[in-house]
Amino acid sequence: MNNLRKQKCAQLSPPFRGLGGQLRWLLLLFLPLSVNAQEVYDLKHCLETGLKRNYDLLIIRNEQQISDNNRTWGNAGFLPAVDLNAGYSGALNNTTQEFTDGLTGKNTNVLNQGVDLGLNVSWTIFDGLYMQTNYQRLKEFQKMGELNTKLAVENLICSVTAEYYNFVYQNLRLANLQYAVSLSKERLRIVEARYNIGSMSRLDLQQARVDFNADSSNLIKQFEIVNTSRITLNRMMALENVSQQIVVKDTLINPDPSLKQTELRTNMEQSNARLLLSAKNRTIGELDYKALKSRNYPYLKLNAGYGYSIDRYGSGTINRQDNLGLTYGLTLGFNIFDGFNRQREQKNAKLAIQNRQLQYEQMELSLKADLANIWMAYKNNLKLLNLENENVNAARENYEIAIERYRLGELSGIELREAQNSLLGAEERLLQAQYNTKLCEISLMQISGQATSYLE
Q1: Strand-pair category, 299-312 with 320-333
Q2: Same domain for 311 and 357?
Q3: Residue 62 has pLDDT above 50, yes or no
Q4: Is 220 or 410 the better-scoring residue by pLDDT?
């Protein structure tokens, strides 16, 4: 296959003489995409760059950090709340007083003032084990944050890997189309030479030119497809210059034929991030129910304070009063009736647990079905690889015989074109089988939770 690629590249120079002026310059406009100095990327480099720079992954990692930050004893309710308060109050009144002995008194513009400063502590000592359950929930949310990051990493690895090999695939198709142009160019050269000496008709010449132009048109379109794939890969890696020219190191698509279905199924049950997330959802549902049950128990709270206050009176027998001291107390409470809301919420929580268990089983069944379907496609594409390899060898030999007979005048242009199309079609099917097999392999690694192996 490598020798064939070298032959194709060698046959591209000099530039295509058979193209019209406009078509020729349009094609040359695309050629710098392949010949300019470019940075070479292998798969590992692409993955490491994407994992470091991809915006979606950066957002997921920040969300994981939020769930990490939320897992604290204070957020769960174990620690007391401490408040420092300070205040000032004043009242300006006109007062009229009538005493029991019949005397009366009247005061105007009486100013009463108060200043207080205090430290207050409120601490829930027991709340039916709600705090302990809440802390367990926070730990599960933290693990879910890690699993969401794992899922995002695996999705990015698989997406970048698939696009990387798509870029390889499109470049190989580009080489095939370049080869097609070179074959058509050779046929056009032969026809032109024979037309000039009168051994071929103008119809043969025009047909050869039409075929050459058709192959050249397909080549120009393929340059655009290669460019689109390159930009998509750059976007996944979050390169600052999304149009940056890159060259991938791989020039062939080599699927791994050694995967085993039993190992994939075992790894899926143990490592698939989506399945693990579904299990965590079920666990959180159980903790939600346990938190609701805590309302069936009484609660005990401790309140304490230490403060200093000053009161100034504008009338009466006391001008000023200072207070400095400690206050404390315990509150024991129990909700006797809340409109049957506790029972309703607990029943709904039980149903939610059942639903999450059903969702887990549904997810597990869906993954098993996907694994079975993709495994069948993977095995079939491996068989197609062997078949298409044989077809390419046979079609190449057939074309070599056809071009020799054509040079000798023993074969028509239509028959040569059929041999050429047969060879190019066989190569295209081989590339498609290689790419499809690689996509199946990537999907199997993702389902089994082994996508990170591509980093190795």
Answers
A1: antiparallel
A2: no
A3: yes
A4: 220
- Are 28 and 121 members of one domain? no
**pLDDT value at residue 53:** 95
Residue whose C-alpha is closest to residue 192's, from 175, 179, 180, 209: 209
- Residues 46 and 88 placed together within one structural domain of the fold: no
Give the structural domain span for 14.
Answer: 2-71+129-298+339-455
**Phi, psi (rounded to 5 degrees) for 345:** -65, -35
Residue scoring higher pLDDT (141 or 104)? 141
On whether the CB atoms of residues 44 and 455 are closer than 8 A, the answer is yes
| Distance in angstroms (rounded) separating the CA atoms of residues 435 and 437 | 5
The count of structural domains within the chain is 2
Q: How would you list the strands of the sheet with 320-333, edge to edge?
A: 81-98, 104-126, 299-312, 320-333
The pLDDT value given to residue 39: 78
Q: Are residues 444 and 395 in the same domain?
A: yes
pLDDT at 44 over 60: yes
Identity of the residue numbered 337: F
What mean pLDDT comes out for the span 260-277? Answer: 96
- Over residues 356-380, the mean pLDDT reads 97
Query: Which of 290, 314, 333 is the last residue before a domain boundary?
Result: 333
Residue type, 386: N
> Would residue 78 count as lying in a domain?
no
The predicted-structure confidence for 382-431, as pLDDT tens digits, reads as follows 999 999 999 999 999 999 999 889 888 888 888 888 999 999 999 999 99
What whole-number distance in Å separates Cα of residue 447 and Cα of residue 274? 9
